[in-house]
Amino acid sequence: MKLRPFITALAVTALVGGGAVVAGCGSDNNNDSGSTSGSSGGKGGKIALLLPESKTARYESQDHPKFEAKVKELCSDCEIVYSNADQDASKQQSQADAALTQGVKVMVLDPVDAASAAAIVTRAKQKNVPVISYDRLIPDAPIDYYISYDNEGVGKLQADSLSKKLAADGNKNATITMINGAPTDNNAKLFKQGATAGFKAAGIKIGKSYDTPDWSPDKAQQEMEQAITAIGKDNVVGVLSANDGMAGGAIAAMKRAGYKDLPPITGQDAELGAVQRILTGEQYMTIYLDIRAEAEKSAELAVSLVKGEQPAATSKVNNGTADIPAVLLDPIAVTADKVKDTIVKDGFYKADQICTAEVKDACAKAGIE
Fold this sequence. Notes:
By secondary structure, this protein is an alpha/beta fold. The chain has helices spanning about 60-75, 90-100, 115-125, 150-170, 185-200, 215-230, 245-255, 270-280, 290-305, 340-345, 350-355, 360-365; strands at about 5-10, 45-50, 80-85, 105-110, 130-135, 145-150, 175-180, 205-210, 240, 285-290, 315-320, 325-330, 330-335.
């Protein structure tokens, strides 16, 4: 069954009540598992954070450290059991089992394979461990909370942005290539649904569409090479890439094919390299997801659950089993003229991180100093 999350508004309430306690926890940054120890009193426990992969830069550079920092701030006696599955669903199953054996009280799970992750949720529920479905919705499973973005909205925002750019360039009835995310990722399906609907509404034709295993930039490069061969170099005038890593792969393919001027290409996640490409004109746009807010709100939910509270959510999403309490954040389309007032203003990256020697002139043109 193809799932389409059904969103209904509820009263907007705070996720966690009470004041924050500053903690002095450290972390063992291990890709299989690690933990932190609290330094002072307070009602706490172990929290499992299970992330899916490291090919997408955000997980190790943003999600993990932001989540951990917020837990430290809120709960001095909370310990984090951290694992990254490196895009291996079986490995994630083992990591989840290990976390449950260690006695975690809450599990925050971003699944490698959304469908098979239901088994992890079932085992957690057998031990009365609540599960927060993080970033990717786990279908047909008794999860307790879901936190992410309006994922169909992300795809539509990408399609709308690219369609408007093509129209402005005189290519209103263009043929584009779609490089979608992993077929095992429910979010990728939703991005694709939203983008496809957006292109249909704009009258844009889809010449080639690929579902990219593992969200791999290398595989995206191969797919882009195939599209150029199949459609013809002059007929690829725009590219929908579901995220920034794959956009980098597609751009490498187009450069190798000898494009004098690169067609506009989308992305997602506001990776540092992508932001730099946007400023220099190699990439047209990215979807800025405030990963800091997503990670921190997940930490708030997890700490609240550890303390035995029942945090309220702002929305509900149906995952095929029930209407799940959910927190859905808004995506933002960012082109070169918006980098300063979004990504830099929010402190997602500092100007000196973005404006390396190769990007200095582009930064000056965009008013970023």
